[in-house]
Amino acid sequence: MALQEPDKKKLLARLRRAEGQLKAVGRMIEDDTACVDTIVQISAIQGALGKIGELILAEHIESCVSDAFTHGDEDQRQTAIDDLMDVFSRYGRFGGRG
After folding, report:
1. Which CATH number does the domain 5-90 belong to among 1.20.1270.360, 3.40.47.10, 2.40.50.180, 1.20.58.1000?
2. 20 to 30 A from 86, CA-CA: which of 14, 27, 31, 98?
3. What's the average pLDDT block by block, 10 residues per block, for the chain (98 residues)?
4. Cα torsion for 67, 68, 73, 75, to the nearest 10°?
């Protein structure tokens, strides 16, 4: 994957934010924070990671898959399709809901 620098910075910022949220959940568990509050924080982390996954998938489609269909041979196109099908079957929607 070869992300453009602005996209890479955006993704890393999102990842750092999710990392901070994850650490907050650890503190919440240590401090016996109300379960509902902890679950809300976990949901926020899942949403953040889902968005990161969506952005990376979009980049993959726009670069690698597009390149395989524009410049690749039949094997490269089929590999691109197989990879996408694998991602969709493993992860469905990145947000974890649905």
Report:
1. 1.20.58.1000
2. 14
3. 80 94 96 95 93 89 92 95 90 56
4. 160
